[in-house]
Design goal:
Number of domains: 2
Structural class: mainly alpha
Keywords: Signal
InterPro entries: Multihaem_cyt_sf, Multiheme_Cytochr_ET
Order of helices and strands: HHHHHHEEEEHEHHHHEHH
Strand content: under 5%
Helix content: 25-40%
Strand order of the largest sheet: 1-2
């Protein structure tokens, strides 16, 4: 009897668990209330800059025309070297498109062209300007990354400014001679040397062969000019002719200078170059016309010619790095006399 009673009670309880909740239901939703009154409008924000205003900082006729005129007279546009742009190995520096391809991808341009440099070789657009010019205009440079040297891929140079862009091309292609088993070196090319633009490395105090000698060769980056790089002197006040520096730029540090032979350093270097040239002519590696004579020479004679032609091709008569050039030439002359 008790068991039946318990079973009945459990059955009733179970039914209540299901029946009672099913009887409790929400009614249908009521009607939406009336919308409240709109709040007051906020203050208008400031007008943004015109869409073209930023572009015109660089692309206005006032800015562009003087630059294009100056660039047109530069060797970055004129001259015959651009014909080398059709060669894959030369296009990185002798072709506008080849240069851009190399800077952007570190690869040689396979669609070689003989086009001279234009604005977009050095300039591009980015999220932020690389720096501002003297007038506060934004300047976008394609790269300011440190530059890996062709003659020594384990070494980089870094001017920490737009001069790094220049150094990608203004560096040697060929290093100083190394001897064969007989202590000689064979010059096979009538254009032998570091190449025609060793300025970037010479300015930093790199690349020339260091003979042992009485002169102390300054360390890498020791030159005062290295802290300025290329642009301070060759792009003074935004100039785009590039080739010859502006005396006004020199006067920022050398206030009394009236020419580039500051403190007589160019005269001193020219005299050393004349002495070294005579030694090289005597050794048969340099012709009276100033060109190399191909052949096999003792390695130190070839190294002497390398130093001579590197200073010659630098085109500054040592002004880029006087202390370095003077020490190198003095030790070279000592080694060959």
């Amino acid at each position: 009897m008790k068991i039946r009673t318990i079973i009945r009670l459990l059955t009733v309880a179970t039914l209540l668990l299901f029946v009672i909740p099913s009887c409790v239901k929400e009614g249908p939703p009521g009607m939406d209330g009336i919308d409240g009154t709109d709040g007051q409008d906020g203050l208008d924000g400031e007008d943004g800059a015109d869409g073209t205003a930023f572009c015109m900082d660089c692309h206005s006729t006032t800015v562009v025309e003087p630059i294009e005129t100056a660039l047109a007279s530069s060797l970055h546009v004129t001259g015959s070297s651009w014909a080398r742009g059709t060669s894959g190995s030369c296009s990185r520096c002798h072709s506008n498109e080849g240069f851009i391809t190399f800077i952007e991808t570190a690869a040689a341009d396979t669609t070689t062209s003989a086009n001279h440099l234009s604005c977009d070789a050095c300039h591009t657009h980015g999220d932020m300007p690389t720096f501002q010019d003297e007038d506060g205009n934004p300047v976008f440079i394609r790269t300011t990354d440190p530059v890996t040297l062709i003659i020594d891929p384990t070494m980089t140079i870094d001017y920490e400014n737009a001069s790094n862009l220049c150094a990608n091309c203004h560096q040697p292609r060929t290093g100083a001679p190394t001897p064969d088993d007989d202590g000689n070196f064979t010059i096979t090319s009538s254009h032998y040397g570091p190449h025609h633009g060793p300025q970037g490395t010479l300015l930093m105090g790199i690349g020339l062969y260091k003979f042992d000698g009485s002169a102390t060769v300054p360390g890498v980056g020791a030159a005062t000019h290295a802290t300025a790089g290329c642009t301070v002197c060759h792009m003074y006040e935004g100039a785009h002719t590039f080739a010859e520096p502006y005396l006004a730029a020199c006067n920022q540090c050398h206030s009394s200078a009236t020419d580039f032979d500051i403190n007589g350093k160019q005269t001193e270097i020219e005299e050393l170059m004349t002495t070294l040239a005579g030694i090289l002519v005597t050794n048969g590696v340099l012709g009276e016309d100033g060109h190399v004579i191909t052949g096999t020479y003792p390695v130190n004679v070839a190294r002497g010619f390398y130093n001579y032609i590197a200073v010659e091709e630098d085109k500054s008569m040592g002004a880029h790095n006087p202390a370095y050039v003077i020490a190198i030439l003095e030790n070279t002359i000592e080694a060959l006399q």
